[in-house]
Specification:
CATH superfamily of the largest domain: ZipA, C-terminal FtsZ-binding domain
CATH class of the largest domain: Alpha Beta
Shape: globular
Protein name: Cell division protein ZipA
Order of helices and strands: HEHEHEEEEEHEHEEHEEEEEHEHH
GO cellular component, one term: cell division site
Distance between the termini: 54 Å
Function: Essential cell division protein that stabilizes the FtsZ protofilaments by cross-linking them and that serves as a cytoplasmic membrane anchor for the Z ring. Also required for the recruitment to the septal ring of downstream cell division proteins.
Strand content: 15-25%
CATH topology of the largest domain: Cell Division Protein Zipa, Chain: A
Helix content: 25-40%
Transmembrane segments: 6-25
Number of helices: 9
Largest sheet: 7 strands, antiparallel
Structural class: alpha+beta
InterPro entries: Cell_div_ZipA, ZipA_FtsZ-bd_C, ZipA_FtsZ-bd_C_sf
């Protein structure tokens, strides 16, 4: 074998390994995102009520099921929301960070996103330490923070008050902008539960150490009070964290072909996104509801022709969408369209068809969640809700 042939063989082998590794990584990412809805530990991930969690500990955001009526009055669809995870009623707190204007040095839409992320920081959802600098400095002065930004298990954000424009913007390590003050925040809660007291203490010590090193004054909230609030917030979020699913299953042992699923999804205005699911998107690119595969394998463009599955599920992530009750009706219509196109049945995990009474019960549950979230100052589908239910 010549050197050229050996080199070509090695390159070909390398390409095959890379393709395999990418496919494995994408499937792992897909399972982590959507697998919670189908965990074996749940009696029925789309239909039954899960066991109540103890209120004392921070709770992971998992899906809780509802038990709708099962009278088979008409061939309609299954569904069942699931609820889970975060904290007790929390008093609304005024935003600690004022809304900021767009930064002229970067593209308008990007600057707006940066500014809005700072405006969302709030003592009710974040542990915020404010540093007042001895002299205006760039974000690089926080050198010790950037290396440890991902050590706390929750998103960390740095916002700076600009010297010239006098507005708050999201600061990055490479920025040359001079800042008078920094607000360094770690998020208290997401679907992984509440941040631990130990992590809060580590975060406080890190930022306090940086403040001492650069001779900045630091305003630091109490760690124990903040952790107590985080647990309460997590408990409340657990109560309203629901996901509604509608199963689409072919009769008998027939399998659904990936290309037919993709064709039907495209016709109904859904697009395949990087997470391996088909999504109906709003004008801002946020997902309204999605279509996932039953066996938790992601849909992929290059495998559509050979891909088969025993069924698919439409999912509505209630806290993350605006007007979820209205969207449930829209998702139900989409399910019926899929059923006609793919010649499938709309059922629950036990292949039971829901009655109108069952569907109305689910809609009432969604409406109750929407009202409870609004009562606590977290509008479903808002930027703040998308942070807390990520």
């Amino acid at each position: 074998m010549s050197e050229l042939q050996a080199a070509l063989l090695a390159i070909g082998f390398g390409v095959i390994v890379a393709v395999y590794a990418f496919g494995w990584w994408q499937q792992r990412k897909y399972r982590r995102k959507f697998g919670a809805a189908f965990k074996a530990s749940h009696a029925d991930a789309l239909y039954q009520e899960s066991a109540a969690k103890p209120a004392a500990a921070p709770v992971e955001h998992v899906v809780t099921e509802l038990e709708p009526e099962t009278a088979v009055s008409q061939p309609v669809e299954e569904v069942a929301p699931e609820a889970d995870a975060h904290v007790a009623p929390v008093e609304s707190v005024e935003a600690v960070i004022e809304p900021v204007a767009e930064t002229p040095s970067v593209p308008l839409s990007y600057a707006k996103a940066l500014d809005e992320s700072c405006a969302l920081l709030d003592a009710s959802s974040d542990f915020i330490i404010e540093l007042s600098l001895a002299e205006p400095s760039p974000a690089a002065v926080l050198d010790g923070l950037w290396q440890r930004k991902f050590d706390f298990g929750k998103p960390v954000q740095v916002c700076g008050l600009t010297l010239n424009a006098q507005h708050w913007e999201r600061a990055i390590a490479e920025s040359q902008t001079l800042y008078e003050r920094f607000r360094i925040a770690v998020q208290l809660v997401d679907r992984g539960g509440a941040i631990s007291a130990a992590k809060l203490g580590d975060f406080r010590d890190l930022v306090a150490g940086i403040a001492k090193h650069i001779k900045a004054d630091a305003a630091v909230p109490d760690v124990h009070e903040t952790h107590h609030h985080a647990v309460e917030l997590d408990t409340f979020c657990a109560e309203v964290d629901q996901m509604v699913g509608i199963n689409l299953v072919p009769p008998g042992e027939r399998q659904l072909n990936g290309s037919r699923i993709a064709q039907a999804a495209s016709m109904l205005g859904m697009s395949l996104e990087a997470d391996g699911a088909f999504h109906a998107l709003d004008a801002q690119g946020h997902s309204l509801f999605c279509l996932i595969n039953h066996d938790s394998k992601p849909f992929q463009h290059h495998t559509q022709e050979t891909f088969t599955t025993s069924g698919v599920t439409l999912l509505l992530d209630v806290p993350r969408v605006a007007h979820p009750a209205e969207l449930f009706d829209r998702m139900l219509e989409t399910a019926r369209e899929f059923a006609r196109e793919l010649q499938v049945n709309v059922v629950d995990d036990r292949r039971v068809v829901l009655s109108d009474g069952g569907l109305n019960l689910i809609c009432d549950q969604i409406t109750a969640v929407e009202a409870k979230m609004a009562e606590h100052g977290i509008a479903p589908g808002s930027a703040q809700a998308r942070r807390l239910f990520a």
